[in-house]
Amino acid sequence: MSSLLIRNIKTIVQAETSRRSLSKGAEMAQLPTLDNAFLLVKDDLIHSFGPMTDCPDTADQTIDASGRMVFPSWCDSHTHIVFAASREEEFVSRIRGLSYEEIARQGGGILNSARRLQLASEDQLFEDAWQRLQEVIGYGTGAIEIKSGYGLSLESELKMLRVIRRLRTVSPIPVKATFLGAHAVPAAYKDKRADYIALIINEMLPAVAEEKLADYCDVFCDKGFFTVEETAQILQAAAQYGLKAKIHANELGYTGGVQAGIAAGAISVDHLEYTGDAEIAALLESDTLPTLLPSCAFFLGIPYAPARKMIDAGLPVVLATDYNPGSSPSGRMSLVVALACIKMKMLPEEAIQAVTLNGARAMELEDRYGTIAPGKVANLFISKPIPSLAYLPYAFGSDLIETIILNGKVWNGPVSNK
Ligand code: NIG
Ligand code: FE
Asked: Which CATH fold would you assign to the domain 75-361?
C-alpha cells in the first residue's frame, strides 16, 4: 500500500463528512470546507482528512500545501472531444454577421464536422482526442463524458464510439460514452428525415448496443434539428437497449425539448439557454438535471441559461464545457466556473458544486468522484497559493492549478505520442 499525505492545506473544498448525492437550491451555496487541514490518500483512494492538529506523522510521500487549497477534480459531464478538424472559418463568418443557425442551414456546422470526420482514420481521431483529453486533465478535469455525433452514418458513428472506447483504455480518468447519432440530419437524408431516424433506430442503436459502445443516448432536440416527437421515438428505442437519455435541448428556442427529456426520464437536459417558467416547473417535478454550458453561450453570443432563477426555484444546476469545434472550442472548466459567476450570477460556492458533485451525478459517478470524501477515488488538485475561494472565478484568466493528483498519484502531464 502506498500513502500520500498533503499537509498544511489552507482549505479543503467539498470536504464531505456525510455523503450527499447531489446539491440543489439553497444548499448549493453551502459548500462544505475545512481550513488548516491534512488529507491522507492510500493507494488510489481518499483515506481520511481532518484538522492539522490530527495530522499523521509520516507517509510514503508528503506534499506541503501551505497557502493552497485542495479541490476535487472537475467533473465535465458534456463534451464532444472526438472531432477531425477545428472550425475557425465559421467563427470568422459569425464575426461577419452570419448566425450559427444560418451557417448550419448552409451545410456548415455539424455537417461540416461530419464530412471531415468521415474522411479521418480511427487512429488519427484517437491521437487527436487523446491530446485533447490530456489537455483538459491539465485544466483539472478528473471525470468526463464524451459524445459521438459527428459520424452521422452507421460506420462513422461506430468509428467515433470505438475511439471513445479506446480513450477509456488509456485514460487515467473515467470516461462515459454517449451515442449522439441524432445530432443533425445528414445532407443525403435532407428530404427523407424519417429514413434517417429509422436508420438510427433500426441499425445504429442495435450495433451500438451489441458492442456495448455507449452509456447514454443523446438527441439534439431543437429548432432546425430534431422535433419533440422524433426525440421521443429515438429515446424510446434507446431505452429498449438500456441506454438512458441525456439530451441537448432549448439551445435555440422554446421547443419543448426540456419536457421531452423529462418525459423520457433523462439523466440530464443540457444547454437550456431558452428556459422559462414552464421548463423550470417541469424540472422541479422530475429527477432530470439541468446542465448549463456557459462557454457555448459566450462563444456563440446567445443568451445565458437562467441559472440564478433555477437555483432560487430549488433546482440543482450542473455546469459543463461542451468542448466541441463549433459552439465551444474550450475544455477549460475554470472558465466555465468564471462565466457562471460573472454572467449567470452564480456564487463561487454554487459554481463549484455544479462542476464537482453535480457534474459527477450527471454521469452517475457521484459514489466515486465529485467530492473529497473517505472512500472516493483520489482525483483532486492542489491550487497555487490563493487568498480565497472566490479568487478562482475572480482571476478568470489565470491558471491557478499547481498539482494534479489522479488515482492517488501525482499526474506528470501529457504523454507524448511520438
Ligand atoms: O452542444 N448543439 C449541438 N451540438 C453541439 C455543437 C455542435 C457543433 O456545432 O459542432 C453543442 O453546442
Ligand atoms: Fe453539446
From this structure: TIM Barrel (3.20.20)
